Amino acid sequence: MDNSPLRVLTVPTFPYADQRPGTNGLRRKVHVFQSRRNYLHNFIQSIFSSIDLRDRQGSTVVVGGDGRFFNQTAIEVIVQMAAANGVGRLIVGHHGLMSTPACSCVIRKFKAIGGIILTASHNPAGPDGDLGIKFNTANGGPANDTVTNKIYQISRTIEEFAICPGLRLDLTTLGKQTFDLENKFKPFIVEIVDAVESYANLMRNIFDFAALKELLSGENHITIRLDAMHGVVGPYVKRILCEELGCPANSAVNCVPMEDFGGQCPDPNLIHAADLVDSMRDGEPDFGAAFDGDGDRNMILGKHGLFVSPSDSVAVIADNIFCIPYFQHRGVRGFARSMPTSAALDRVAKATKIELYETPTGWKFFGNLMDAGRLSLCGEESFGTSGDHIREKDGLWAALAWLSILATRRQSVEDILKYHWLKYGRNYYTRYDYENIDIDAACEMMEDLEIMIADKSFVKRRFAVEDKIYQVEKADNFEYTDPVDSSITRNQGLRINFSDGSRIIYRLSGTSSGGATVRIYLESYEKEHVFQETQVVLSPLATIAIKISQLHHRTGRTGPSVIT
Ligand code: VG1
Ligand code: CO
User: Fold this and answer.
1) Domain 426-563, CATH class in plain words
2) Which-ligand-closest: CA of 134?
């Protein structure tokens, strides 16, 4: 065996203009990474270069991914580049796998300066699918805009990258591997870790596993069905729910991570997780949950597939927060939701006199509040829920939070949800997505809408649909001032608030890998009539939203691609 130190090379490259990270990382079609020379290398070098050399030298960085096609190839490159860029130690998931919440947990556990997660989340995978690169910082959360802007600026002028092409890593063996590099005194260390165990440990300290075990496998146990959608979270579900809490093996489905997620979109909603919904509709299970490709999203279902909307889910967890031992011990400092998420959480915050923060879309905005000790529980309408145990949304944590509520209250999901609506009233909520829209048409629509709602005469305007009349109370382009560091984030969605508490919000997605996705968020509050059909209640608002934006006319579409 050749024991001579590995060579570090500096390779010339030329920049790409389109490496601006979106809502959460850079997402592109796999073939973009395959066909554009050094496309991956450029972005990875830009990440490393964005970190001050003094912080980078000898530091620890975490690397993992959701197991999708091209992940392994990308991880090999990242490891070779980390070594060449002065990183001292890498913590890598076994077989290169690590869910996004586990990565957040591992960054914090090993005091790393950050982590690189190879995932395009719920986007489809495989040779024709997407690849994504998320970058998280030392607190375990997604990099903030200052950091991602810096990465983007570097990527626009990059001229070279550093790499150790001879470095060969064995991803299959747990434990330490060391590599000697030329001109380096200290060896470069890679530790292959069992991220499932680190994450399971964290969960044991948050929830009452004895109570959960009783609920799931005791004498009067309930039946559950969890769908990992062939994403990275399967082994976590198996280890925690089946091995530790005693659920029978058949209560966890699609738990083997696959490169193409079995050809499906690993997106936990009523459309893409239809198999779970169908199997629950006529089946036994009292509780169901599905997770996305990288394990940070969740969908919660009750018996017969009763859907708990994510906005309601976080509100119910907030109202029952002391069913979770972690919060009994630590207390509750604040609640937060992204702006388009329904105001159901606000009602709980008001009743419990706990501070409520409204942030832009994307998890990165919650991290600052948590680090400052001002936030304990938060959620997004896009199936994201979590606490301040890490700095990411956490799919499995959300399922365990709900199971903790069931264990304490010994009621069905349906009864808990109905009780909540009767207590607080109901925020009916839906989101329309128009995918793959021409980018120019989408931007033009947003510009025209902004001009329209900025006009003074727009406030007080009335819209009548059937027998309903909505009067505009306020309309703006959402802007966020971070209460911790006073940084301002502009242009976060157009919102129209009506006098009865209803809202229409328009936003362009920041996670699609091609074309534009227009999102329309619709919400109406009812104090008393809490058992109506969501789509029926919101249909007049949808009519107004489509009419004033002329969305169908502008795009030639006749309806949304997905309704959630
Ligand atoms: C979407 C969601 C947002 C979420 C983001 C990342 O962003 O709306 O709430 O935080 O995806 O989720 P956008 O810009 O497309 O609306 V994940 O599971 O990809 O980390
Ligand atoms: Co995700």
Assistant:
1) alpha beta
2) 1
